[in-house]
Amino acid sequence: MAVLVTGGAGYIGSHAVAALLEKGEEVVVVDNLQQGHREAVTGGRLYEGDLRDEELLDRIFRENEIDSVIHFAANSLVGESMKLPGKYYHNNVYGTLCLLEAMNRAGVKRIVFSSTAATYGEPESVPIRETDRTEPTNAYGETKLAMEKMIRWFETAHEFRYVSLRYFNAAGAHESGKIGEDHDPETHLIPIVLQAALGQRPHVSVFGEDYPTEDGSCVRDYIHVSDLADAHILAVERLRRGEASAVYNLGNGQGFSVKQVIDIARRVTGRDIPAVIEPRRSGDPAVLIAASDKARAELGWNPRRSELEAIIASAWGWHRARPQGYRG
Ligand code: UDP
């Protein structure tokens, strides 16, 4: 049986595809290649197309023996979502609706969902637990929460089973050096910091120095992308065992401010990385740190690349080897 990976040519999706292939799984990928890269798909069968294309989805389910779906395909930029919420509702929410309906038509009812810490919004308390209030502060998080809820209603009505994985901040690259992070335009902190280290940008902008944190910049919990990928495999295995639907946070449980990330990157790269303080970016909560003991206990998840220095070193390896990303 095959696993269908939507958005499998994207950053986290491609690392999950690699991890599935390493496990000997049969993999089918669907990606519209809006953000994804053909070269990031290291094996399996790739369908180029959009989830909102119902005929394509029916064809994929007809042509392959799929027993589970891992759903990554979505737009995922906080800043952009505040300017173009309609784009997020259309691609993320309506795209997920099309996927769930196609799954239902095909009788495929197991789904691992790529969710996010952005579903919580400004946390009630830190570290964040899965039972905490979900009140997104940006349109991106709001659409992801809507997608999670939609999946739950498909469980109630159509006996779907899901695992929703709420990631904190993904970073780093695959140890093979073949895949890594490459967005255009790049908006994520760690790749931007490393582009500045390479001299591709004059400086890093620190978005806000007046947050209620120790140094005034936002605090995030950075997790290695391959540790995230491993969690997806454990989630598929959980669903195949017939266990109950569940929501899990995935993070390291340790927070680093934007300024700390830049300092660590200076140490790791040995390069001078100029930083300039700028106004806050709209939609950003001050602090996002995960409590992930539930994923460890129930999924048996064990992140193995937890040190931020090692995560940044892994990302640095990719950026130095492929300064133009997949174009290089
Ligand atoms: N950030 C920043 N400068 C940048 C990019 C990001 O200060 O050039 C901050 C951003 O405001 C947030 C943190 O870094 O507080 C992580 O942002 P990113 O976009 O990497 O991930 P997000 O938390 O939005 O998923």
TrEMBL record:
EC number(s) given by UniProt: 5.1.3.2
CDD domains per the UniProt record, alphabetical: UDP_G4E_1_SDR_e
Names of the cofactor(s): NAD(+)
Enzyme class, spelled out: isomerase
Gene Ontology terms: biological process: galactose catabolic process via UDP-galactose, Leloir pathway
GO MF annotations, alphabetized: UDP-glucose 4-epimerase activity
Every NAD-dependent epimerase/dehydratase domain range: 3-251
Pathway(s) it belongs to: Carbohydrate metabolism; galactose metabolism
Keywords linked to the UniProt accession: Carbohydrate metabolism, Galactose metabolism, Isomerase, NAD
InterPro entries linked to this entry: Epimerase_deHydtase, NAD(P)-bd_dom_sf, UDP_G4E
Catalytic reaction annotation: UDP-alpha-D-glucose = UDP-alpha-D-galactose
Stored NCBIfam families: galE (TIGR01179)
Description of how the protein assembles with itself and partners: Homodimer.
Similarity comment: family membership: Belongs to the NAD(P)-dependent epimerase/dehydratase family.
Protein's recorded name: UDP-glucose 4-epimerase
Species per Swiss-Prot/TrEMBL record: Paenibacillus albicereus
Organism classification: Bacteria, Bacillati, Bacillota, Bacilli, Bacillales
